[in-house]
Amino acid sequence: MKIVFRSGWSRTLSIAALLSLAIAPNALAHHALGGRTPNNFLEGFISGLAHPIIGFDHFAFVVASGLLAVGLEQGLSIPIAFVVATLIGTGIHLQSINLIFPEAIVAVSVIVFGILLTLKSRFSGNSHLYTIALATLAMIAGVFHGYAYGESIVGARAVTLGAYLLGFTTIQLAIAIGAFQIGNLIKEKVSLMKGLGLGIVAIGGAFLIGLK
Fold this sequence. Notes:
- The chain is an all-alpha fold and 212 residues long.
- 71% of the residues lie in helices and 0% in strands.
- It has eight helices and no strands.
- It has helices at residues 8-23, 41-54, 56-68, 77-94, 102-118, 128-150, 158-186, 190-210.
- Helix 1 runs parallel beside helix 8, helix 2 packs parallel to helix 7 (158-186) and helix 5 runs antiparallel to helix 6 (128-150).
- Residues 1-29 form the signal peptide.
- This is HupE/UreJ family protein.
- Keywords: Membrane, Signal, Transmembrane, Transmembrane helix.
- InterPro entries: HupE_UreJ.
């Protein structure tokens, strides 16, 4: 049976995203262990798996990167570039190097990738340069997302840190590839893709407004 997506899907998805952000605490602490630093390999791995999911802004960006990869030559280089850069960003944080306005830049990056997703149908041509541009933006964003990830692991032992990095790398790649696969199934549904983009914009906007 063929499922027909109507334009109402766009409105529904956008409203749902707004509502979910309205009832979720903006400081969804991004910690799987209630704010406690992981203390062993298992805790580090679980915390790494959880951070990109309970951090709804990070989750939204990873999903957007996977969806934007659809239909582009070497499109998966976009989320891969992001994930590699998150490792760099975490390292920057652990070296006690301060980045300016990291939370605001993370929120803005979500908004930008959401907007790009709403405009995806206008850039349907398989341009290698467009892929490179998106991957470059993803890498810049990844440094700041990774910097935020680093906060959860400051002071942890090396084995715990390694498990944490493994955890958030694994889950981000899984989310991005999952989004990419779903995107391939719905790539002809322009209104649905725009709706997802608007929802992601709403998530980024909510986090940006909620910053103190």
